[in-house]
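Summary of Year 1 activities. Much of the first year was spent building the evaluation harness for sequence design. The harness presents a backbone, in tokenized form, and records the residue chosen at every position. We chose the following record to illustrate the format because it has been used consistently in internal testing since the harness was completed.
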């Protein structure tokens, strides 16, 4: 069972692509280490404050996969320099 999320967000305070990518690298590595999911920037790579992250979780149970995705989203919200603006969660 596969559950994915597309997360649009703003990296507040980023004044360059370098600063944005530093924030995203930190978020991505912490999410991967904490939740064992795949996460990558999938949109707006050349825009210095806006981003789209793709998150995917594979599990034997849809409920478990959705719970993990929700925990990841809550964890991402704990980063003060990242503001989530839109999220789409899908079962595949």
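For this record, the design step produced the sequence shown next.
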């Amino acid at each position: 069972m596969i559950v994915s999320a597309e997360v649009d967000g703003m990296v507040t305070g980023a004044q360059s692509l370098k600063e944005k990518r530093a924030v995203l690298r930190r978020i991505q590595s912490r999410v991967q280490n904490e939740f064992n999911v795949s996460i990558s920037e999938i949109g707006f790579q050349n825009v210095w404050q806006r981003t789209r992250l793709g998150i995917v979780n594979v599990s034997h149970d849809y409920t478990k996969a959705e719970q993990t995705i929700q925990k990841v989203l809550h964890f991402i919200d704990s980063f003060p320099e990242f503001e989530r603006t839109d999220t789409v969660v899908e079962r595949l």
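The chain has one domain: 2-91. Quantitative recovery figures across the full test set are reported in Table 2.
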